[in-house]
C-alpha cells in the first residue's frame, strides 16, 4: 500500500535524524511555553454562548446605541446583620463606599438612598442592594470594569456579595481557571503511575508522557495562532489543552505498544522496527487524528463564539498531537531502542486480560444476531431518559451554591420584593406614539409570568420596554413566556425584539437545534470518506457511525438523570435546576465521537491485519480484540483520568463534560468495542468489507511493510 510505504519512509527518516528531531521538539516546547502562554491575553473573554444572528443579540446591539440599556449588570448585596439598614451608621458607611466607587466605565449606580425605592431594602430591613450598569455593551469589557471597582464596595462589618450577569461571568472565569489547574496537578501524577502500571517499565511509560507534555505546551501556541484569525472563548483553553494531553498519551500508548511488539518479533533492525511501527500504528494514529479533528471541525457550523472557537482550537490541537506522535515519539523510540523495556517495576499484573476479551468475543459471535439486538436494546434503554431533557443556557446556576452570584439570586428571591436583574427588555423599532407603546406594554404585562412592564426609554423611532419576572430563567415556564411575548403583536408598522436571560436561552437552544443536524451530517460525511479511504469498505463506515452514536446514548441518558433530575448531585456537590446546558452535550458529541472513532480505527486496523494471517473470520476478529484490548482499555482509562478532574470542579458545566466523557469512553471501550463490534462484524461476515463494484473480499492482501532482516543461522 502506497500510504504505508509513505509512513514507513517517515519512520525511517525520523529514526535516522532523531537527534535533530528531538532538538527541534525541545526548542519548540520552550518557544511554546514562552510565546504560547500569551494566549491568555489574546482570548476574547467571557464565554460567547449567544447566537450573533439571534433576535436577542440584535436587541442588545440596539441597546448599545443611543437608546441605552436599562437592566443592571451587577447587583451588589449588602447584608447588614443585626444593625439593619435603618441604622444611621450603617447607611452612612454604605453610602460612603458607593460614593467612592470610581465612575470610569460606569454608566449608572443606583441605591436605596438615591431612588427612595423600598424595593432596594429587604423585608426584614437587614439587607439592601446597589445596582451597577456599565457603559460598555461588551461582556469582556464589563468584566474588566467590575474587577477594577469591586474592592471599592467593601464596608467593614458588612457582608458584601456580587451578583448579576457580569459578576457571574467573572466568577465562572476565575473558578474555571483554578479548577483546571487543580485538575492538571492531580491528573499528571496519576497518569504517570498508570503508565508505569500499563507498561511495567519506567522508560516505556516516560515516552508517551514526554510527548504529552510537549503537546500540552504546543496547544497554547496552537490556540494563540487561532486567536490571530478568529475570536476564541476563554473556556477553550480549559478543555482543549487537557484534551490535547489526553490524545497525545493515547497515541503514544498505541505507538509504544506496537514498537515493543516489533522488538519482540525481531528487534535486530531498530530503524526497521521504528519504520514498521509508524507504518502500522502511525498510520492508525494519522487516520484517527484526522477523524477526531473532523469531529471538532463540525463545531464550526455553529455561529456562537464558544462552539465555533472550540472547533477551530480543537482541530488545531489534535493536528499537533498527531504531528508529535509521528515525529517526536518515533525519534524517542529509536533513542530508547531495546532500553524501552528497561527500569522494570515489579507490579502485580492481571493474568491474560486479552485472553478474557478473546473468549468473550468468541462468546458473543456464537449468536451474533441475538447479541447485537440485546446490546443495542440496552444502550438505547440507557439513553431513553435523555428524551425528556429540558435545555438551558449557562447562568449563575452553574456555580456552587455558596458562590456570590448564586447567593445573591437566592437572597433577592426570598428576602426582597423583586430581583432587579430578572428583566426582559423589549426593543421596539418603528414609528409609534407613546399611547401605542404604553398599550403594547400593558399587553406584554398580561402575558403569564411577566411581573409588570413599562416604557423606560425612547430614542428617535426606537423604544425600550422593561419587563420584570420572577420565574427561574431556565425553567420550562421561561420558554413559554418568551414565546408568548414574541407572539404578542407590537404596534402597527413596528417590530419588537426581546433580550434578557430567558430570551437568550430560547435563542441559544434554537440555534443549537437548527445547526446540530448540519454538524452531524458534516462529521458523518467526512468520517465516511476517511474510513472508506482507510479500509476500502462502504459498510464499515456506516457501522462505525451507528455504533458510535449508540456509545453516546448511555452517556447522554446519565447526563439528564444527574444534572436535570439531580441523581448524585450530593456526591458531585451541585444543586440541580431541572435543566441541562445545551452547549456542552454538543461539545461532548464532538469529543466523544472523535474518541469512539479513535478506538474503532485501532480495532479495525488490527482486524484487517489479522485477516491476512488467518482464513477464519471469527478468529481474526477475536484475535484483533485480544491484541487491541490492552491498548484500548488502557487508553480509555488514561483518558478517564485526564477528564476526571472536571468532576471536582465547582462549575456544573465542567462536571457535565466530565460525566459525559467518562461514561462515553467507558461504554465505548468495553461494551461497544469488546462486545458489540465483534457481534456486528460476525453478523456482517465478509460483507463488512464490501464496496460497490466488487464482490465481498475473502481476505486483504498482506500490508506492504518494511521487511525484517533475515535471521542469520
- Overall mean pLDDT stands at 86
Low-confidence stretches: 696-705, 707-713
**Helical residues, percent:** 55-70%
Taking the alpha carbons of the first and last residues, their distance comes to 31 Å
Structural class by SSE content:
alpha+beta
Tertiary shape: elongated
Spatial extent as radius of gyration: 29 Å
Please state how the strands of the largest beta sheet are arranged side by side: 2-3-1-4
Protein name: MMPL family transporter
Domain SSD: 203-335
InterPro entries: MMPL_dom, Mycobact_MmpL, SSD
Membrane topology: Multi-pass membrane protein
List the helices and strands and how they pair.
Blueprint: H1 2-16, H2 18-34, H3 55-63, E1 74-79, H4 88-99, E2 106-110, H5 112-115, E3 127-134, H6 139-149, E4 159-163, H7 165-199, H8 202-227, H9 235-266, H10 270-297, H11 305-326, H12 328-336, H13 353-366, H14 368-383, E5 391-392, H15 404-415, E6 423-429, H16 434-445, E7 450-459, E8 462-469, H17 476-487, E9 495-499, H18 501-535, H19 539-564, H20 569-572, E10 580-581, H21 583-611, H22 617-644, H23 652-684
Parallel strand pairs: 5-10
Antiparallel strand pairs: 1-3, 1-4, 2-3, 6-8, 6-9, 7-8
If you had to describe this structure to a student in words, what would you say it looks like?
Residues 203-335 form the SSD domain. Strands 2-3-1-4 form a 4-stranded antiparallel beta sheet. A 4-stranded antiparallel beta sheet has the order 7-8-6-9, sandwiched between helices. Strands 5-10 form a two-stranded parallel ribbon. Helix 8 (202-227) runs antiparallel to helix 9 (235-266), helix 9 runs parallel beside helix 11 (305-326) and helix 10 (270-297) runs antiparallel to helix 18 (501-535). The chain has helices at residues 2-16, 18-34, 55-63, 88-99, 112-115, 139-149, 165-199, 202-227, 235-266, 270-297, 305-326, 328-336, 353-366, 368-383, 404-415, 434-445, 476-487, 501-535, 539-564, 569-572, 583-611, 617-644, 652-684, and strands spanning 74-79, 106-110, 127-134, 159-163, 391-392, 423-429, 450-459, 462-469, 495-499, 580-581. Strand 7 and strand 8 (462-469) form a beta hairpin. The protein has 2 domains: 2-47 and 171-390 and 506-689, no CATH class; 73-163, 2-Layer Sandwich (Alpha-Beta Plaits), CATH 3.30.70. The protein is elongated. 62% of the residues lie in helices and 8% in strands. The chain starts with a helix and ends in a 29-residue tail after the last helix. The longest helix is centred in the N-terminal third of the chain and has 35 residues, at 165-199. It is an alpha+beta fold and 713 residues long.
